[in-house]
Amino acid sequence: MYAALERLRNLVMQIGGYELQPVKLMSLPSFEAVASDETKVRVLRLIASGIDTATELSKLVGSSKTGIYRYLKSLMKSGFVIKKGRRYIPSARLYLVYTVEVEDDGVPCIRLVRDRGAILDSRDMIFIKGPECDCSTCPERPRCLEAVRRIAKLLDVKLRSTEPMAAFREVVECVVTRDIPTLLRRACLVLEVPELLVGSQA
User: Fold this and answer.
1) For a 10 Å CB count at each end of the chain, is N or C smaller?
2) Distance between CA atoms of residues 92 and 23, nearest Å
């Protein structure tokens, strides 16, 4: 257990005096609501680079402050961003994506999606978007590969692949089989209720 904890502690990163979570698990719909929207991705990457107020974001994105607040609210609901005072910062260093499936016997099962996720790397946000990504033609391939390699090194994962998507899959598979089960045996999970559901009549 201690080795798994130490590996995750290696992911800890501070932004503006606030310590980010090393890993954040997010649902597939929450991830795709951001990853499939170019403006949300741009806003998130600006936040990752240190642009942390609605006024600054509004100027750089070329959107009204009202529009920026809508994007920020969506990024907070999805779990990508948190608000500290008037500033917005990423919520974690490594974002892993999960789905919930119901087994034949009615028992829910959480499965990590191996080809989707995001990495906060050197004040930039790198997205791995599953089938939508084509590493062979992507101009961001070198940046993505470097980000995955850095995360792999911090988590002590030996990579075999030289393609970002396949390398990210190796990281997720290793974390899923080696670290997460070890931690879950001795830890507890905190469930966050999306703002959208608070006060609803479910």
Assistant:
1) C
2) 6
